[in-house]
Fold this protein.
Amino acid sequence: MKTRIIISLIVVVCVALLSTVSGVNSAEYDYEVKAKKMSFGWKVVGDTLAVKMSAKTEGWVGIGFNPSKKMKDANFVLGYVKKGEAKIIDEFGNEPTKHTSDKKLGGTVDATLVGGTEEGGITTIEFTMPLKSADKYDPAIDVNGETIVLLAYGPSRDSFKTKHKYRTALKVNLSTGASEAVKK
């Protein structure tokens, strides 16, 4: 009798653990917006933003938050997958049409790579970042207000030096999922 109870408990615990692990691995996001051949999914977890970005490219995918003019003052994260290994960079829009590594400007890298894949001509990058870091090159993001989000992807080349093949700007409320295209 005790053996059956112990086996039943082990089965229940294993099922619960498998359910939890599969939920974590699927990395469900609360919201997602799509723009042409690109998507941006996100979830706010405390003071952290979890992001998933995908595009129909075998090159880089990127996102920027809250520019003041074109790309200026935006916090950018770009990523690609090469030979199965994902890589990201954290940059700051230091000019209307240019962004530079936070580290090179004297800041810190505050985006943390979660993972990335390149399958069927689609590159997907997942990362987390603080909503408010101590880095002056990472402007705070207010999840309750409107956030301007820049989405872009590059040509089929694993290099952060190539110019975007596609780009767009969206106005997003990160706490409700409401979004609309920004008129240019």
Observations:
- Residues 4-26 have pLDDT under 50 and may be disordered.
- The domain at 26-181 is CATH 2.60.40.1210 (Immunoglobulin-like).
- The CA atoms of residues 42 and 48 lie 10 Å apart.
- The chain has one domain: 26-181.
